Amino acid sequence: MRLPRNINLQAMMNIEEFRAEAHRMADRIADYYESASTYPVKSQVKPGEILDALPLQPPADSESTGSIMADFERIIMPGITHWQSPSFFAYFPANSSYPSVLAEMLTAALAQQGMIWETSPAATELEERVMEWLKQIFGLPEEWTGVIQDTASASTLAALLTARERATDWNVNDNGFAPEAGLRIYCSSETHSSIEKATKIAGYGKNNLIKVAVKSDGSMDIVALEKAISDDLKAGLKPVCVVGTLGTTGTTANDPLEAIGKICQKHKLWFHVDAAYGGTALMLPEMRHLAAGLKFADSYVFNPHKWMFTNFDCSAYFVRDQEALIRTFSILPEYLKTATRGQVKDYRDWGVALGRRFRALKLWFVIRSFGVEGLREKVRKHLELARWLKHTIESSEDFELLAPVNYSLVCFRYHPEAVADEEKLNQINQQLLQKVNETGRLYITHTKTAGKYTLRMVIAQTYVERHHVEAAWSLIRKTAEQLSA
Q1: Which one of 27, 42, 53, 114 is CB 3.0 to 4.6 Å from 443, fit for a cystine?
Q2: Whether residue 193 has pLDDT greater than 90
Q3: For the domain bounded by 113-357, which CATH number is listed?
Q4: How far apart are the first and last CA of the chain?
Q5: CATH 1.20.1340.10 region(s) of the chain?
Q6: What pTM was computed for the model?
Q7: Confidence of residue 154 (pLDDT cuts 50, 70, 90)
Q8: Averaged over 41-70, what is the pLDDT?
Q9: What integer pLDDT is reported at residue 6 of this predicted model?
Q10: Which CATH number applies to 12-96?
């Protein structure tokens, strides 16, 4: 028999070493934020490069934090895409902020498992209060109740599962899907891919997701929606839910929520609104007109971890009928029964996961540290920077806008006067995207609008300033000129 190795427990980190390393780590984090703009924004490593630099076997013995951090700098940092760089203009942001990071440090230290009230009363009750604050900040319907999910994908899945159960009188939860075929979900062709994923996971089947045509501005065509629902009813199918979007992923188009809501009310359909990115803009009174149709919504999601300076993950999900949500997800094994059940919120019943992180803490830190007016000032600044870029592109001879600028996303392309062929223009803009990203000085992504290769530049990073946007535009313009030459 193999004898156990003599392990030197004293080599492992003790509390005093932890204290010293924690101080050094705080300095390292502060240094990173101070110098984030000096790194290549998009990682420049090749596929497999990080993997090849990592040992095949885990270490048998304890290693010092100094040794680990040396490898972090040597191996890990080159493979980091710097989402917190002020020159990150890709996708939608996954923003952080100084108070959010401080709260995340406490979250990690406390290591709360907030599945039910009794496992962490503070985590539950702070989440309840913070979600009420969000309703006030964003002017959301008073009758809604909120819960923090990890992502908008999880929130949408919760919405579609609850819609499924309400439409079948909770029969699918008990008996499975077989007797309930032909349940239909509707969204626009511009809706986020998470809707299709949720449709598959929830058992509807992706062929029962009807992608409704959009108008020239990218918003859902109401006439087409009405026809799709009518056709399905005539075919003996069962319409269940419509998903509307406030700020689509490709171009931030806004679906006509009020018109969709009235259709849902007429046909008794669940109405879910995905405002993952655009929802943050509703904190501004001048943007509240976009929320006119929310009074009809059964569920709603937006992500503070996108544009509200609260680091990933933190998705705010609201429902009109909390009992329908709880009835969909609630399971009560003996080991989770408590004397306080019924007196408090047990958030394990409000979504897919049993285990729950203490996400409310960082949201609380951010709201208190910035203040509501400070948050509004940040968002307004981003909108103003996007308008500056919009006007700059409009006044440029060789660039053109390809979508309305509804928030802080600007969709455009390079269009030299001498080039008329659309396929050639697509190739030029694809090359332009690759060239500017290869510099490491900024990071942008693309979409396609009406078949046109479209450059997307999202101006929403927490600490972005006018000079970062100007520098990005200058690089894009000069790179385009070099391509033409």
Answers
A1: 42
A2: no
A3: 3.40.640.10
A4: 74
A5: 12-96
A6: 0.89
A7: confident
A8: 92
A9: 56
A10: 1.20.1340.10
Question: Quick one: tokens of 244?
Answer: 């509307």
